[in-house]
Amino acid sequence: VQLQASGGGLVQTGGSLRLSCAASGSTLGIYALGWFRRAPGKEREYVGTIAWNGRNPHYGDSVKGRVTISKDNARDTVYLQMNNLQLEDTAVYYCAVRKNYPRDWFSWGQGTQVTVSS
Fold first, then answer.
1. pLDDT tens for each residue of 68-107
2. Is 47 helix (H, G, I), strand (E, B) or coil?
3. Rounded Cα–Cα distance for residues 78 and 71 (Å)
4. Which helix (DSSP H) or strand (DSSP E) does residue 99 occupy?
């Protein structure tokens, strides 16, 4: 499976963005898709996940209440809707998938830059 993340850009604090992660190729055995981010000089951070059937979204503590993850099953595309963006949300956002076992994330997309300005 190949993943293509898109939708990043420059936004002011309090603004919104919707990121997309489109999957292509074989998705057989894919269990979940995750969103992660890496800010300059920081470790990779977990943003959230959704089961490949589009159910059971889960969110990281730093974004909970401000983001929604959803999936268009017909398009094999997962969305990350981010609202009330803050300066600390500035990062490169990546998507990846995993199987039920092993649980390692793989097929990392190239990432999409989100920059929040004051």
1. 999 999 999 999 999 999 999 999 999 999 999 989 999 9
2. strand
3. 4
4. none
